[in-house]
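Quick start: read one record
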Amino acid sequence: MSRLLVPYYEHPSVRPAEWEAIVAAAPRLYGVVLNPASGPGERPDPAFAQIAERLRTADVRVLGYVDTAYGRRPRAEIVADLTRHRDWYGTDGAFLDQVATGLGEFGYYQRLATAAWGAGHDTLAFNHGAPPHPAYGRLADVLVTFEGPWETYRTLRPDPWPGDTRTRLCHLVYGVPPGARVAELAHARGARVHCAVPGEGEHPWGTLPHALELRRGGAL
């Protein structure tokens, strides 16, 4: 079965029970995306630093969120974000969002990957949101080849990955109703990592994955 990559974009002081649920689910997680302020922010946030330390102690990968604007964002800004994530939160890797899919931008992302490795980020996840050129599999440990609503995902036709089979594919699905068998679908479609949340709209990643939902009283 596929494992969970959790992009949870809520502050630990506002949603402490939800973060506790994520930490408690450590053995089931591939990693957690840390996103204090659409990136690392302008200064360290002690609450995120504490939760990042707890996740690492539980042997969970902590990936720092960085927006790449589909190859349009200046490389120096991204490198600065990568360095802040590493210095402030001890991140193990990076979750690069809004990553281009075409071969024309490959050189841009190749340079970013080299910078990320140099900054000590051992794990790279690229969120393309759609299938990219297979060459990107040479740069990232995880490629997000689908991000979208459940209504689209459940009717999606399987599309075999033409690249390296060692590449972990990930599907991020939102607007998912209770009981939907996303894990099984993800596995059948070649995704070894996934996340399914009930949230919708512009910011669906402020809801816990169905697999980690809280029961009454705040416990798993």
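The two ends are 20 Å apart (CA to CA).
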